[in-house]
Amino acid sequence: MGLEPVKVGLLGLGTVGGGTANVLARNAREIARRAGRGIRITRAAAREYRAEDISGIEDIQITEDAFEVVNAPEIEIVIELIGGCSPARELVLRAIENGKHVVTANKALIALHGNEIFAAAKAKGVMVAFEAAVAGGIPIIKAIREGLAANHIDWAAGIINGTGNYILTEMRDKGRAFSEALAEAQDLGYAEADPTFDVEGIDAAHKLTILASIAFGIPLQFDKTYTEGITKIEPQDVAYAGTLGYRIKHLGIARKSDRGVEMRVHPTLIPERRLIANVDGVMNAVLVKGDAVGPTLYYGAGAGSEPTASAVVADVVDVVRALTTDPDNRVPHLAFQAEELSDVPVLPIDEVETAYYLRLQVRDQPGVMAQIAGILGDAGISIEAIQQKEPLEGETDVPLVLLTRRVLERHMNRAIGQMENLDSVEGRVMRIRVEQLAG
């Protein structure tokens, strides 16, 4: 261990930045034994931070100007923990231009600008590591990219946003309405004052874009990820799903078929006996199905100071180990050699095939069930289960709940349009996609 410690520059001293400094300080000896040399944060950029919560802060030169850090000649690795796309993109590209390796936890940056960033890194012979960008502390990128390298990945499905999962868990455990559960998540600090990114699925879509790319060897294509949030889920849907033997989870699903690749984020009914259906609260989990290995499940904390720092520091260790290696023999950013990425089409949502849960408010009169069944029959849609519920208090309409077999979404859209046109059907049809996620 005669080598000098590697000098690291840290952008951001918030939750994850502070955690990264703490983990590096606390486990310095262990980390050096793994990496082959010491790792020291010598410079950091931050507008505001809590010095009392960060160990070793007295040895760090702190500035408000992040460009000062990425331009400092002695810094070999830059850790970007600012989030967002600007100035993060400019800082990361400048660090690469300066010949520095980059470790980032920034899913939006990778999902939206990763293709450009990885091309720049390849041209400069530096590494960009982003394990912490998907599912926090769970080493899912490494698992798919390295651990499962022998496999054709058939599909991956993940609970990759803890805020949304917490809200759905509260709705199920306590019968709460969405707005109530959201307010509670905000009180506990799990949800932002503006929760759009989490509850509308945008955050999960960033992460899914990255997962699909490393699973299938396709370029990052965030704009082709279908995204639907959980704001319309009602307590009655959670309850009805339960009586049918399902749980509702907000899933990111990436699947490859002979027609193309699916990338979609939406509420999903999954059988309650699946392990992933029992992942509750703010925890994350990703289920990956490979042709050789079968289904594998990765579970853990998807956010938080030290869980995320765990992935950040592991990436720094990887970079340190590879500092001296020939750039052409490193693990490729997107798992497949850069020139081997394929242009398999990404299917629009109406070309996706899945099963459905449907809930309709119908008039309590004879013949309605037959009309509905007729529309589905004409569309070639098989019904798996059908249940007429008791009317809600003071209502004359009754909820009708259906489970269908697998069908193309565009056929389902047409059938739903026809049902909504019936005089006997009130308002909109609630639809939630259903996935078995079977091995």
Short recap of the structure:
The protein is of the alpha/beta class and 439 residues long.
Explained architecture:
The chain is of the alpha/beta class. The protein has 3 domains: about 5-135 and about 305-340, Rossmann fold; about 140-300, Dihydrodipicolinate Reductase, domain 2 (2-Layer Sandwich), CATH 3.30.360.10; about 350-435, ACT domain (Alpha-Beta Plaits), CATH 3.30.70. The chain contains 14 helices and 17 strands. The chain has helices at about 15-25, 30-35, 65-70, 90-95, 105-125, 140-145, 160-175, 180-185, 195-200, 200-215, 235-245, 305-320, 370-380, 410-420, and strands at about 5-10, 40-45, 60-65, 75-80, 100-105, 130, 155-160, 225, 245-255, 260-270, 285-290, 295-300, 355-365, 385-390, 395-405, 405-410, 425-435. Strands 7, 8, 9, 10, 11, 12, 13, 14, 15, 16 and 17 form an 11-stranded mixed β-sheet that branches. Helix 1 (about 15-25) crosses helix 12 (about 305-320), helix 2 runs parallel beside helix 12 and helix 4 (about 90-95) packs parallel to helix 5 (about 105-125). It is elongated, with a radius of gyration of 24 Å. The mean pLDDT is about 95.
